[in-house]
Amino acid sequence: MNRYDGVKVLLTGAASGIGRATAIRLTTEGAAVYAVDLSAEGLAETAAAVTGPGTLATRTVDVTDEPAVIAAVAAAAETLGGIDVLVNVAGVHKTTPIETLTVADLNRLFSVNLVGTALFCREALKHLPDGTGVIVNTASLSATQGSPFMTAYSASKGAVLAFSLSLAAELTARRIRVVPVSPGAVDTPLTRNPGIFPAGLDLGYFSKIRSYFGAADPEMIAAAIAFAGSSDAAYFTGADFRVDGGAHT
Ligand SMILES: NC(=O)c1ccc[n+]([C@@H]2O[C@H](COP(=O)([O-])OP(=O)(O)OC[C@H]3O[C@@H](n4cnc5c(N)ncnc54)[C@H](O)[C@@H]3O)[C@@H](O)[C@H]2O)c1
Q1: Residue whose CA lies nearest to ligand 1 atom number 2
Q2: Nearest-10 crossing angle of helices 17-28, 218-229
Q3: Which residue has its alpha carbon closest to ligand 1 atom 1?
Q4: Spatial distance between the Cα atoms of 106 and 104, rounded to a whole number of angstroms
Q5: Coil, strand, or helix at residue 136?
Q6: Fewer CB near the last or first residue (10 Å), C or N of the chain?
Q7: Residue 1 falls within a domain, yes or no?
Q8: Atom 41 of ligand 1 has which residue's CA nearest to it?
Q9: Under DSSP, is residue 224 helix (H, G, I), strand (E, B) or coil?
Q10: How high is the pLDDT of residue 28?
């Protein structure tokens, strides 16, 4: 008996990093996954890595494109025969000192990280079943912990966290759970090319957001997402689920 047997999952950001690890983890546990991302090439690599017993369908979507999101969620519901769990993982990052922060950076971070997440929630809620539906949104340790040179990214993730907490409260009448998952540092392409840091950076700045366990592997976050989306987490809703190796302590 697999934990996700018969469970239909819509997953964003599945072409890389945490999203890919989540696609592999959920299909390994039996889920039927409809995976979306901007990168067709990355989605193909994810599909090639999936071995079942669950299934994976893919679609190229920009999560900031409202008509495309509306169409993708409708297609996911039709392909899967409904949606039980929505997992929002798609996201972008950029570090920059405040002196070089641009409106373009702010708009991009908020539009992918917050607006994309919100659009998928709104559309998926047309299909998620009352009583058992679940939304898992990827926030970040940066949402609640000062993270130098990440003001815009942190603010966008703080917005994802606040959005998720309020949505959880709003959905109590439908008994749909909303779980924001907040990873600390994870070894993925996102953290390998972060953006701009000041010259002569003092790494001591990062001591508050570094775990003594080192950076997580994406599979560690996928395991937490799989738990949050499953019936094992039936009493988890409306609280930040930190998966940060104790970095906040
Ligand atoms: N890596 C970390 O240390 C870390 C820490 C905390 C939170 N997170 C969050 O976890 C999530 C996944 O990050 P990751 O580390 O796996 O990064 P990643 O770069 O490996 O994967 C992000 C995925 O999102 C997709 N994406 C970006 N913009 C998109 C758009 N407009 N439409 C559709 N897809 C889009 C990318 O194509 C990519 O496949 C992000 O939301 C990130 O903010 C990551």
Answers
A1: 186
A2: 50
A3: 186
A4: 5
A5: strand
A6: N
A7: no
A8: 91
A9: helix
A10: 98
Q: Is the CB of 37 within 6 Å of ligand 1?
A: yes
C-alpha 48 – ligand 1 centre gap (Å): 19
The finding on whether 189 has its CB within 6 A of some atom of ligand 1 is yes
State how many domains the chain has. Answer: 1
β-bridge mates for residue 36, sequence order:
12, 59
Name, in order, each residue with C-beta under 8 angstroms of 101's C-beta and a sequence gap of 6 or more: 151, 152
In a domain, 249, yes or no: no
Six token digits for residue 144: 């609640």
Give dist(CA 202, CA 105) in Å, integer. 23
Given a contact cutoff of 8 angstroms between Cβ atoms, the answer to whether 116 and 90 are in contact is: yes
Centre of ligand 1 from the C-alpha of residue 227, in Å: 19
Report d(CA 92, CA 26) in Å as an integer. 23
Q: Is residue 73 part of a domain?
A: yes
Domain range spanning residue 180?
A: 8-243
Any idea what the Cα angle at residue 238 is, between residues 88 and 249, rounded to 5°? 90
User: DSSP character for 216?
Assistant: B
Q: List the catalytic residues.
A: 153
Helix (H, G, I), strand (E, B) or coil at 63: coil
Q: Is ligand 1 within 6 A of the CB of residue 63?
A: yes
**248 within some domain:** no
- Please report, in tens digits, the pLDDT of each residue of the chain (249 residues total): 799 999 999 999 999 999 999 999 999 999 999 999 999 999 999 999 999 999 999 999 999 999 999 999 999 999 999 999 999 999 999 999 999 999 999 999 999 999 999 999 999 999 999 999 999 999 999 999 999 999 999 999 999 999 999 999 999 999 999 999 999 999 999 988 777 777 777 777 777 788 889 999 999 999 999 999 999 999 999 999 999 999 967
For residues 140 and 137, give the distance between their C-alpha atoms in angstroms, rounded to a whole number: 10
